[in-house]
Amino acid sequence: MRSVIVVIGAGSIGQAIARRVSAGKQVLLADLQKDNAEVAAKVLSDAGFEVSTATVDVSSRASVHALVQTATALGDITGVIHAAGVSPTQASPGTILAVDLYGTALVLEEFGNVIARGGAAVVIASQSGHRLGALTAEQDKALATTPADDLLALPLLQLDQVKDSLHAYQLSKRGNTLRVMAEAVRWGERGARVNTISPGIIFTPLAKDELTGPRGEGYRRMIELCPARRGGTPDEVGTVGALLMGPDGAFITGSDFLMDGGVTAAYWYGELAPR
After folding, report:
1. pTM summary value
2. What are phi and psi of 53, to 5 degrees?
């Protein structure tokens, strides 16, 4: 059977990881917007990759399940790159929770049922999850293990508790890392691995929306005051993704890799610390 890499989210980060891990494999590139998937597929195809496309709404179980069926019809699913999501500037709290939190839980659940032995997945979380204050042990466990279809009913996720879009985003990304830790146990029963990457400000169209949006000043301050004194590139995320999905990362699962140029370090212990 052909080895299949499923890329969910046709943006720069998903493409960067795919380029590092998909040579000689079939790439299934899925996005909410068909045009986005086709543009990205042409770039990869012109670079020598074998690519097909699909549309998916990750906030819909039926849509994610249909994507799984499309992928399994192509071959053995040996890799999943989940890079779909919306940012605080792009969406309401409810939409962020539905797409970034519930959608990730659906992807992990559905693809965890079919991932091939030796397969691996990477979920793109965010540095934002590391700037959310500590939750209780019970809240952590609930975010990690509540069945996907019951997740949005959790008390801490109700819109009278979620203050704004940024809070929804932070909760979602914290939830992603916790969910991946729990799912790593189930994926391990199939001989597969799953990890998260929590990037900082990576220069993508989404980041540019943030830099030019209402939170732009805060984003520029993060770049100026973090230890690295710059933003990151999709290719740098691709390097970490390749490690986590490849043989050199065979002992890594259920982990989160924070790569933010030190923004989180500066937030807790440096010049970015709240005053």
Report:
1. 0.96
2. -125, 160
Give the catalytic positions in this structure: 169, 173
The Cα 35–Cα 24 span in angstroms is 25
Q: Which of 246, 209, 199 is nearest to 83 (CA)?
A: 199
CA 6 to CA 41: how far, in whole Å? 12
Residue showing tokens 């819109």: 159
Residue written as token pair 């720069």: 12
Domain ranges of the chain: 3-269
Residue recorded with tokens 């992807």:
107
Question: Which CATH architecture is the domain 3-269 placed in?
Answer: 3-Layer(aba) Sandwich (3.40)
202-261 confidence digits (pLDDT tens): 998 777 777 888 878 888 999 999 999 999 999 999 999 999 999 999 999 999 999 999
Listed in sequence order, the residues at least 6 apart from 33 whose beta carbon sits closer than 8 Å to its beta carbon are 10, 55
